Protein 1
Amino acid sequence: QKVSVEVLDHLECLALVDFRDSEGVERLQKAIQFADQLHEVNTDGVEPMDSVLEDRWCLYLREDDVTEGNCTKELLENAREKVEEYFVAPPGNIPLPKLEERDTFLQGS
Amino acid sequence: AVLKDGLRSQVSAALKEGRVTPTELCQRCLALIKSTKFLNAYITVAEETALKQAEESEERYKRGQPLGLLDGIPIAVKDNFNTAGIETTCASNMLKGYISPYNATVVQKLLDQGAVLLGKTNLDEFAMGSGSTDGVFGPVRNPWSYSKQYREKSVPKSHSEDEESNWVITGGSSGGSAAAVSSFTCFAALGSDTGGSTRNPAAHCGVVGLKPTYGLISRHGLIPLVNSMDVPGILTRCVDDAAVLLGSLAGHDPKDSTTVQDDFKPFELPDLTDVSKLSIGIPKEYHAPGLSSEILALWSKAADLFKNAGAKVVEVSLPHTRYSIVCYHVLCTAEVASNMARFDGLEYGHRSDKKESTESMYAATRREGFNDVVRGRILSGNYFLLKQNYEKYFVKAQKVRRLIANDFVKVFRSGVDILLTPTTLSDPAPYREFIQEDNRTRSAQDDVLTQAANMAGLPAINVPTALSERGLPVGLQFIGRSFQEKELLTVAKWFEKQVQFPMIQLEEVERHDNGVFQHQKSASFS
């Protein structure tokens, strides 16, 4: 059962990485096929496991005290585009171009 | 002749007694790194800072106040741990040029003990892979490729065949760290272990590789792959040294809420003489498809070793073993999809020049920064996390994970103390053979024996056992109960003493170690 182009397109938009070529799409197909083996296992009455430490420890919340910080300078050093103490991003709220207009391998599939 | 020493037994004593100084040690290691550059084990060599750390250590020794066993000891760290002021790349274009503003907790702990940080080691990109062949800085070469033991056994197929093309892989993804320890350029190295990434290269490079219990050692500063399975890994020349490293690294970290709050007491390993009270479990499902007959025989021999020494050796069953790699595949890609979302070019790392919109800039940055393997896992993970797939794949995998973890609980409850299994399916493959299959296939094959321990969060260790017919290292794995590292390492140490794994005979090392060739059979040099 092949993954539809709609889903592939959706994945590219969600993940913000591209399939690049037919190999990339094939890779996903194989990954799904591989994962399908899970359905052979009977998991009736089995609870999903989030963490191996579930018995040992309750996720704790620490006191809301400021213990460190004041490292604006260090944090900004690794950013390529900044203005004063801001990270600069291109305009937001502009969705990725639709499949037909996007530069993606999936176009014309 | 100090470069080949074990930490606890020799080198620390030598430093204390002044027979060698930290700066001499550091300089020798740096020189050896240079002359073994062809191994490509290191991405960054922090020469200046290392020498400075060595000088400071020397001052402490002169005052008679060393910080501990690790003071002045040269170590290496896998390049997915943050190291302040030093580039941390994860062998990816995404982080080329990224200078960490802080030290990972484990790095800080080592530095606080006076260890000398020589550099950052090579890996598969973002620790995804089992060969250390898929990073942007190229593959790591197994030092054993250049050993006398391997060369004696390899018959060139033709006159024109270059010895160069015969080199074997280190395994992965902590291949650089394993190669660094194996080639004596450092005394210990940090790796990471999510599906076997410390134990696999340890087996292929003939060194000890310890995966601690999940929650014992802080992951703060370790660039995450799978938050519910990642652990920092320890690579050393002998089991005693692994215990020393564990002692300095384990314990609760307020910066990592997944570390347990229990007090951790560092321990020295006793010299076990009586194994009659020990019960060793041999999980029959670990006789996996593709397991080489050589390793099968070695595994059997090891079981007999325990039996003949009076231990109880029983066959056990971990019935869901064959599903653990599938389960891992789903959980890993799902968590990876989430963890890799942080790489968008805004705050750090590579940033694309695209300016039209945030979305298009993110997409282009990630397109340019990640390799095929990383992208593949992100896309698969996102697929499994889609609303229509969430229950079917992700939650299903979480349920199967519980079944796998329960398998281990049942076996340990039945009176078995330690499990003995192979670590890898075969001895290290030649590079040109390894790259014939793609990364995902290889990982699925190679991780089979190691990753169930990550699923269950259990401690596991690779102990170098013997050389294969081709003269290459083969190791065996011990898996223990949660937080019972002392018991695990005690048994591992006993086994190490029995097998007397041979020391690698590398020409380069002889030259740097005062040219004195010491043929010693034991890796622990005691």
Note: Residues 96 and 102 of chain A are 8 Å apart (CA to CA).
Protein 2
Amino acid sequence: MAARYDRAITVFSPDGHLFQVEYAQEAVKKGSTAVGIRGTDIVVLGVEKKSVAKLQDERTVKKICALDDHVCMAFAGLTADARIVINRARVECQSHKLTVEDPVTVEYITRFIATLKQRYTQSNGCRPFGISALIVGFDDDGIPRLYQTDPSGTYHAWKANAIGRSAKTVREFLEKNYTEDTIATDSEAIKLAIRALLEVVQSGGKNIELAIIRRNQPLKMFSAKEIESQVVDIEKEKEEAEKKKSKKLI
Amino acid sequence: MAATFFGEVVKVRSRAVTEDEEDEEDPWAPDNPEDREVRRELERKREVEVLQTQTNLSLEIPLLEQYPCSKFIMAVGNNAVAFLSSFVLNSETWEEIGSTKLWNEWCRTTDTTNLSPTDAFCVFYRLKSDPTVFLCQCSCYVAEDQQYQWLEKVFGSSPKRNLQITILTSRHVTDYKTPESSCNLPSPFLKALKTQSFQDAACCTLLEQPNIVHDLPAAVLSYCQVWKIPAILYLCYTDIMKLDLVTIEAFKPILGSKSLKGLVKNVSHGTEILKKLVTTNEIQSNIYT
């Protein structure tokens, strides 16, 4: 039945589906997991690193990209589509700064990206962008923001979210573990992001990439060593929690 | 006879069944020797053969009539094949006893006469310590017209006693029909479908209607149902059809089942092998990040 209504983006099915948009959401699930967390004074983006071929330069395969000094995004889905969206967003950030002499707000740039995506769901001859994005940053008012966009062109603000493969598992983990305590301090928020990724990442810390933005500070990418030390801390805490549990049982 | 709008007179096909029906043109009858030759060549090309590894000769009688079998475990598709390769094939000592040689439009090779070892897509292994236990790794697509031949050449057409069959395969989650939205499905997940004579419990929930099974696994299951052979199919619905660790690990509950009992020794060793297998295949595509 879907076969008659899924060839063109501009055709609704009788029950109101836009199948091309829904198929684009399947393309997002093929990308590796990305998680975003909004803390009190920090925003964290963690991604599962894509394994790189031996002869490939690792620097060209990045899932976390800065859009401006105070905004960055992580995506999941078609790499080429992401590159186009990121380039347009970066140009828009600079254009906005030159026009109104103020940096973009996170919501503005998210709305720009979402509008761009939506336009491609209503044009004939084009297909939707096959990416979902997590956009984080701080506005001038000092409030941290996290937004998520998807191929249909919708965007929503989130406290914490995940996209890509196994996003559902990570989201369930976040729903259980995102509490006022876990985001009380910056380090706790970072640990929460890493713990969420460790639920689904296969070979532990070396396949994780992390970026944070603190209020009035530029984007910081964590090095592999820093991530490894965080993972070691998390494992220690896990062991201690388990020891306490077994003591209680005894 | 009837006249058309353009003034032609044509013979009208009558729905009345008369004895003259046999004289009418049958559109499917081969009308010239060339067509017949092409058809014969195509049939020859699409023939399914089971080759014995030792002699490299085609088996004259069905495989399971040549070798008595009590347990037949089959993997169809690359994820199921990788699962059995890592957790079952590496544990005990298995010997390769045969393979099927077949060609269809899905095959990558065009030369059907000289198939290299890597092209032998359905490989049969037998457990050395118990020669009635068989394993079949099928990573090729067996077309609809070839499935019957495959069944004939492997199982034969007589009823089997004391045989139990287990099939593992995977399918894309978008084929799973459910009233729930596909975003809420916990893919990958396992579903089972068994024949009436299969008495043991399955390791997961049964496949609900109106979902159906396709291709070779369906053909084998139908064969088992007809011949009253206890058989169970474990179907993993996944959103990633290529070789994927998460999908393969979804088959793990089967390791505890009666079908694979005693065949799996070291699960952690199996996990290591699996990781190696997947990473060597993983770094191929840059399309998705």
Note: Strands of chain B lie at 2-3, 9-10, 49-52, 71-76, 94-101, 122-127, 133-138, 164-172, 189-194, 231-238.
Protein 3
Amino acid sequence: MTNCPTLIVTVGLPARGKTYISKKLTRYLNWIGVPTREFNVGQYRRECMKIYKSFEFFRPDNEEGLKIRRQCASAALNDVRQYLTEQGGQVAVFDATNTTRERRETIIQFAEQNGFKVFFVESVCEDPDVIQENIVQVKLGSPDYTNCNTEEAVEDFMKRIKCYENSYETLDEVLDRDLSYIKIMDVGQRYLVNRVLDHIQSRIVYYLMNIHITPRSIYLCRHGESELNVKGRIGGDSGLTPRGKEFGKKLSQFIKSQGISDLKVWTSQMKRTIQTAEALSVPYEQWKVLNEIDAGVCEEMMYEEIQDNYPLEFALRDQDKYRYRYPKGESYEDLVQRLEPVIMELERQENVLVICHQAVMRCLLAYFLDKTAEELPYLKCPLHTVLKLTPVAYGCKVESICLNVDAVNTHRERPETVSDFSKKNEKSLQ
Amino acid sequence: MSARLDQARSELAHCSVSDAFCNSPTMIVMVGLPARGKTYISKKLTRYLNWIGVPTKMFNVGQYRREAVKIYKNFEFFKTDNEEAMRIRKACASAALKDVSAYFSKEQGQVAVFDATNTTRERRAVINSFAKEKGYKVFFVESICDDPEIIAENIKQVKFGSPDYVDRDIDDAMEDFVQRIECYKANYKSIDDEKDRKLSYIKIFDVGSRYLVNRVQDHIQSRIVYYLMNIHVTPRSIYLSRHGESELNLLGRIGGDSGLSPRGQKYANALATFIKGQKISDLKVWTSHMKRTIQTAEALGVPYEQWKALNEIDAGVCEELTYEEIQENLPEEFALRDQDKYRYRYPKGESYEDLVHRLEPVIMELERQENVLVVCHQAVMRCLLAYFLDKPADELPYLRCPLHTVLKLTPIAYGCKVEPFFLNIEAVNTHRERPGQSNWLMIYYSTFGQILKGYSGVNLIHGLTHRETVLDSLSRDKVCRPLANVVLASSETTARQQYIAVNGSKYKTAIKKPQIMLRTAPQISNIRNRVPAHISRHQTFDIVAVFVGKYKRNSPPEKPSLLWGSPVSRLPSAVESCSIDHH
């Protein structure tokens, strides 16, 4: 997407959600195929200092502390340079407070020297409840506070914030008018966006404007067992078996028991998901992009048949299941691209139940659980099991709820030995 | 069979696009001094929202004012102490709001764009309470700009052509308009970040250099913000072209992934020459993932980007069939498609509606970019063209996008200028006209003196008198074009008097000699390729039915049998289309 690498620089006082945003953004960009890594300067500091004593380290008159912190920032920038120039990275997220104009100027010069574009993401928040919640959720569990009790930790952290407050220079509409940035105010109530330069920055802005931190849960499940499942055939558009219908009923009971307010239900446009949703007796929305991966010429075949009739294809798929595209069909990589609007809408929404398919569910799960492209096609998404995802701290809590209705197993494990074809063969066959 | 029809009908009835759009209608309210681009933004936004399937309408209060006050004298009308004028202006705003209400409640509108200056808090409060009372969501779009060059350019581009200044000379008009702006400036209260913190709005500064976004409420507002943040006013051109003629094009087959024919290759080279001649700075070239567009782009000798989203519409089970084969093997599908070509989805394939959905990221990126050449496919090009030229869904599938023609689109004022460039390389015609509305053709084979059962397209001939020839009546009947567009085909060169029987009556035709010779059944079923080259292109006709009858001199004529086609009593618009020229 971009020619020159992009350096995203977070700005903001402690407990303003910078690391939350960094991790989420990194996860999203990697999922859509933009190699991204985050560099948290606090981590560097922890490695340097080994033991954190108290907020005094962050006092602006602590010369020793300042020296160490500057060194850590430089070390992090060095790693950024390596990642973006030598390791094939496209975007680096530089996660630190960066609250002074001077520090930001240093970063801008560093970027200019190396030919990186810079995009600032500033989080401004004065709501004490939000800040308190942040501290409770993520700071108390931090390595800095493992040996403190809650009140001590909160008190120390508030003093830490104070250390930054006096020298905090927010991004200024006039002084910083030539910089590219987004200012997020009050957790997304308001945004100020300045000088978006290119496509990737535009996507980042769009993403940041769609995420929220309202507590909610996302339920992912597959359709009930289908006729073709039972025959061991992939793809197609068959209806549910009796066991599949049973799952629909159990799903309905489960959903009612969860007592979810305002649940949105999404399905694909294939019979088996629609029939499953019908059993819930609530309004649901059909998304074409939630349709199962198109297996092209292999639609409705059994794996054994594919192996018999298309042995080369079969082998190639095992070589690189993520990028392999069925002839006249799709790859997991294509699937991720077409699921991106679903992810964006899932971010906007609150409680959602998505009834989809095996490959689709793997892609969605990989997004929420930050799985790599190599792991994605082998994630376990069995039939008749609901995964409840609840965003927590910097990640996602997963609860797997099996609804106790028998079904066939459609999972293929990653094969142990794979023959050595080069990627060139795959391209020439497409 | 009928189950498929039922399913297809229900597919047509329901909107198949994921519809996370709001339930309550949304009012987008523009805010800003004159010449800040409010109408430009309003029109563009309306066009975009309609294209992605959200029924949207624009309400320009200036229009209402022009209708109320027939003649515009000068800027004095806009002075804040002009009581009479203030009354009129308030009345116009109310009238517009009333129409907004009617649009939402009676016309199933989803979004209304209220285009006016709305520069005072008082006016905005009126709109807000109006919306609250009716249950509409409100989203403000304010455009703030103090760059005198941009404002002067705006005034030149759009104001001088306005009905208000039609009889003025340019300097006069400029001066009057500047005074007009001054009238507003004194009372202009921008949306306040503190006082208006509960409102949902976006403030656009300096034509998109900076944005302030507050309280985005839902999906549609989020999409609007994203769109507004991606458009720009830098002058540029977009070139749309199809791939060069492909092997499957030559065979009359749809879809597939074939390479270029020799003529297609010639086109690719001609395209390269054309592009060089245009001397475009920094041109981006986009293709699909299919061979024919890639091969076309290769000839340009510049880097190009492949987009999967630009692939041709997926014809599902009909891939690589000819239209004749589809009509023969899947007659119901064929008929359904003609009934609603925009929403009809090929079994295991896509519809134009699906295509629009998958092309949305392409449009967004086209908005962000400057000079771009898009090498794509017929259905895809129709969708893109419909976006730029604001064509509605029922016209979209019938837009003309012939092979070997480049369309150059240049945004100007509130719309888009289109220049077609035909690069002079012959190609087959792949366009199918909307059935029943084209010039019609009857192709038939008749024995001498034999009366055929009459078959016609929809709404064609009625009220013929006995002595008239069919073709006379065709000229008289305004529904169809006159005689030049009727092509007769026969396998008998000696057939002199051709009879066409229509609605049970028999009429002579004026044309004596058949223009197309059909000797064998395969020739008949491949009718499209039999139309001579010199009478093809740009006009269309329908083949209604083809009959074969044997003729033996001195023996009673045989009853002709239907070789290909459908009588009107079964399906109203089961027709094939070819193209034919005036002559």
Note: Residues 218-402 of chain A form a domain with the Rossmann fold fold (CATH 3.40.50.1240).
